[in-house]
Write a structure and sequence with these properties.
The protein is an all-alpha fold and about 60 residues long. The protein has one domain (about 1-50). It is about 60% helix and about 0% strand. The protein is built from two helices and no strands. It has helices at about 1-20, 35-50. It is globular, with a radius of gyration of 13 Å. The relative contact order is 0.13. The mean pLDDT is about 90.
């Protein structure tokens, strides 16, 4: 159960950060539209970046 809560919290965090950055989130556009596919890919990339540990990156932040 804890993993599910952590995943939900991470997703909500990414949604809020993207909104603050002026980026659209997947739920803000028509599902399966070309725009949705592009935004969804960008959103998933942001989620993957957010879940990475700081220890996973080098001094310059690169993997």
């Amino acid at each position: 159960m804890e993993d599910g809560l952590e995943a939900h919290a991470l997703t909500l965090t990414v949604l809020v950060i993207r909104k603050a950055q002026g980026k659209k989130n997947p739920h803000e556009v028509s599902v399966r539209s070309p725009e949705w596919h592009a935004i969804n890919q960008d959103f998933l990339r942001d989620v993957l970046l957010a879940q990475r540990s700081p220890l996973d990156t080098g001094a310059d932040g690169a993997a």
